[in-house]
Amino acid sequence: MKKRDFIKIDFMIENYASPPTFLGRNGAYDMAGIEITHFPTTNMIRLEPITKKQRTGRSWLEIPEDKIKSLISELKKAIGDSNE
Predict the structure, then answer these.
(1) What's the confidence (pLDDT) of residue 67?
(2) What is the pTM for the complete model shown?
(3) Exposure pattern of 26-57 as b/e (b: 16+ CB <10 Å)?
């Protein structure tokens, strides 16, 4: 599977009371950002954590393109955002 388009969301410049974390195969790590990759041949979006060393963490989540809007809607509900 070839990676096509990707963007990175960087958390390093933010000041959070507790840093965002992810769980990898060797335990929990502070997360510096997220890499978002689109795979048009399989219609999937992959989310991968970026470590403080600017490397992709050893975990990922793939979401079908047609479920992205539902995911965003549920995330908004989780934070109490009623602006749909």
Answers:
(1) 96
(2) 0.78
(3) eeebebbbbbebebeeeeebbbbbbbeeeeeb
* 84 and 63 Cβ atoms separated by less than 8 Å: no
Predicted local confidence at residue 5, as pLDDT = 59
Question: Is 68 in contact with 74 (CB distance < 8 Å)?
Answer: no
Nearest alpha carbon to residue 63 among 45, 37, 51, 81:
45
Q: In the numeric block, which tokens belong to residue 84?
A: 């749909």
Alpha helices in the chain (DSSP H): 68-78
Cα–Cα dist 59/25, whole Å: 8
Interatomic CA distance for residues 31 and 50, integer angstroms = 6
* Contacts with 25 (C-beta within 8 Å, 6 or more apart), sequence order: 58, 59
